[in-house]
Design goal:
single chain; 218 residues; alpha+beta; four-stranded antiparallel beta sheet; 47% helix
Length: 218
């Protein structure tokens, strides 16, 4: 029995010695960003076209830029949306997009507001304010651009006809309208003629009381 215990003890010592001879396995180093700040630094350039459009003198955001923003955001969601720190970074980016939308609404850049609304929906974030801004932007984008192309005085009826060109902001399609004072067309009302046929005052009926002037085409 004693001999058996000696043999077992020797085997145990031998096994312990073998374990010490095994090489240590190093933990794999994770690749890519591992914190919210690191992810945010990676994905923030995706919304650079939105920020750039806010700059004074910059034209409205193009369809190409919109598609690029949406594509980059989709890639960011796929790359980092499965981690907690990645989700936090995407949420922070969403708050930055909301701030851009507020500034865009203040500058009446309605197209930019709608792009921000689409981006927030892609990030699966809720914002009542942004929803209201989007609805308001939709209303304003439905207002056609107006050009005054000429006037015709009807002396017999003591009336004046105004020739207007209406341009759809979304599609670019054009329509010509002949109108008199108080006539209503395409959610517009002809309110007044400025001076001696220098231009017109119109009301946008979807926002009652919203008047705007359009100078005659020269």
């Amino acid at each position: 029995m004693r001999m058996m215990m000696i043999i077992l003890g020797g085997l145990l010592i031998l096994m312990m010695g073998c374990e010490n001879l095994l090489p240590e396995v190093e933990e794999p180093v994770p690749e890519g960003p591992q914190t919210k700040a690191e992810v945010l630094a990676k994905i923030r350039p995706a919304i650079a076209p939105l920020r750039n459009t806010l700059q004074p003198g910059m034209p409205g955001i193009s369809d190409h830029a919109r598609e690029q923003v949406m594509s980059d955001l989709r890639e960011a969601i796929m790359a980092y949306g499965d981690t907690e720190f990645g989700q936090e970074a995407l949420r922070e980016l969403g708050y930055e997009i909301m701030d851009i939308a507020r500034q865009a609404a203040g500058q009446t850049r309605h197209n930019l507001v709608l792009v921000c609304v689409d981006a927030i929906e892609l990030l699966s974030m809720e914002s009542h304010l942004l929803r209201r801004l989007g609805e308001r932007a939709d209303i304003f984008l439905d207002r056609p651009m107006v050009r005054v192309q000429g006037f015709l005085d009807d002396h017999e009826k003591d009336d004046t006809y105004v020739f207007l060109q209406l341009i759809d902001r979304r599609t670019g399609s054009e329509e010509r309208v002949k109108a008199r004072l108080e006539d209503k067309f395409h959610n517009l009302r002809l309110v007044d003629i400025i001076g001696r046929n220098r231009g017109v005052v119109l009301e946008y009926l979807r926002v009652p009381g919203l008047l705007f002037e359009v100078e005659a085409f020269r």
